[in-house]
Amino acid sequence: MGNARPPAGGPTILAMNTWPGVIGRYRDWMELAEDVEAVTLLEGNTPLVPLPRQALALGAAALYVKYEGLNPSGSFKDRGMTAAISMAVHDGAQAVICASTGNTAASAAAYAARAGLRCIVLVPRGKVATGKLGGALAHAAEVIQVEGSFDQALAMVTELTLERPIALVNSINPYRLEGQKTAAFEICDTLGRAPEWLALPVGNAGNITSYWMGFKQYDQTRKTGLPRILGVQAAGAAPLVLGHPVDQPETAATAIRIGRPARGPQALQAASESGGRIIAVSDEAILEAQTDLARDGLWVEPASAAGLAGLKHEVASGALELAGATVVCVCTGHGLKDPDAITSRAPEPRVIPADMNSLRALIDS
Q: How far apart are alpha carbons 214 and 226 in whole angstroms?
């Protein structure tokens, strides 16, 4: 596997009526059973959105956002979930289970519904954004709240799958990484090469691991080059920066509120091998970056802004020089995943009577 080339001639961002989903597009690059039938919602094919004002502020030649919030369930998780659920069906599973801070739950529920499978999700009680919880409930997943952390929930579902014939679809499932690495393929196909830097949030660490897998695989065959990777954790949930687990992680960036990343060692290896690093930034910096992205027209959930926050931090501190560099910032989830993060901080809308004079007076004030 891995020697086939995507179709030549023109960009790979295709019209939705011709896009087959990530398995259909990149099957020959993925370690899946040859006879697996794709359970797909036509995930992937997300755009690289140029942000020239942010590039100028950072001193980069070009800055793009890989806008993964445009996947079917609103996050990057769909790339891995199509592969995990497809293989679960192939292997005869009747039910799937996951622990989640929200995005995995919504994605697992959507793809399980597509496949006709029972879906069980464990979430930390009171720690999941309503937009994500709503996604799981909409697809009739069985949502169980745990009086504890994500890490405790993950330990529970992992143990349960050793006792019951239920497929685990968290990122410790290797097929999740096979699906998620396709985002690296898309970046190279669109740019014609790898960027100099890739910045992205780090929570359970499956995404940074899968991106590095994808870039290395493409470079071995297509000589696209390799990026340096800047992984970014929230300061209140930064076990890979601190060098030890965080038992009670806290951050407004709920998607990366994880204290014991399942793919931690692989994430550290990816950052090191790439010549990059993993850093931590404050919640204030993350929310500021979320606002910056919104001012450029991109509404993302707080965790998605961690990559840009990390870039800004490193450039401002003098630790990173981006002159002449093409940079890709991965935004992992749509803002509708966590609307409370905006509405809770916004002022109350102004109210006027339903007459034109009141409107004119307000506009002219």
A: 10
pLDDT at res. 101: 83
pLDDT tens-digit map of 305-318 = 999 999 999 999 99
Phi, psi of 260 (to 5 degrees): -135, 80
For the chain, report the end-to-end CA distance as a whole number of angstroms.
65
Backbone phi and psi for residue 133, each to the nearest 5 degrees, phi listed first = -60, -40
Q: Using CA atoms, how far apart are residues 72 and 19, in angstroms rounded to an integer?
A: 13
What's the Cα-to-Cα distance from 277 to each of 7, 208, 233, 240, rounded to whole Å?
A: 34, 11, 11, 10
CATH number for 21-74+175-343 (one of 3.10.20.90, 3.40.50.1100, 1.10.3720.10, 2.40.128.110): it is 3.40.50.1100
Q: How far apart are CA 48 and CA 54, in angstroms?
A: 14
User: What is the rounded CA–CA span in Å between residue 50 and residue 63?
Assistant: 6
Mean pLDDT of 319-340: 96
Q: What is the pLDDT of residues 49-93, one digit of tens each?
A: 999 999 999 999 999 999 999 999 999 999 999 999 999 999 999
Q: Which CATH number fits domain 77-173: 3.40.50.1100, 2.60.120.10, 2.60.40.10, 3.10.129.10?
A: 3.40.50.1100
